[in-house]
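Reopening this one. Same input as before:
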Amino acid sequence: MKRFVIAGILALAAGSAMAADQAVTYPFEGSFGDAAFAVENAIIGRGLVIDYVSHTGEMLNRTGADVGSTTELFNEADIFLFCSAQVSRSVMEADPMNIAHCPYGIFVADQGGEVMIGYRTYPDGEMQEVQALLDDIVKEALK
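Same output, byte for byte:
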């Protein structure tokens, strides 16, 4: 039994470490609305089209009670989904299965009054071209 408890603790610790490695986040000095506006402008300013804005925070807050939870994860959280024809073609010509990573997303979240902007990380290799694009967009939004 002791072995199972130790294994469980190690698995939880590894899961938390992996989750931290799955996203790059930057703090935003300002309101959620200002951060969302800045991200939208940074994406559009590159000539890219936002395909969809997922209002994830709103959905989580609305459905918490329905799934038996009282935990508020985010005050607000949106994910901006978009693609880049140029970058997508480049990474998919290198490996057509990179389609699995499209569309790309940048999130804005307010967690307990702390606003952040971020994106998920991508595998080494050609997908680093996408990660560089996302990082550039986020840094533009932070200005």
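So the earlier flakiness isn't reproducible anymore. For the record, Residues 1-18 have pLDDT under 50 and may be disordered.
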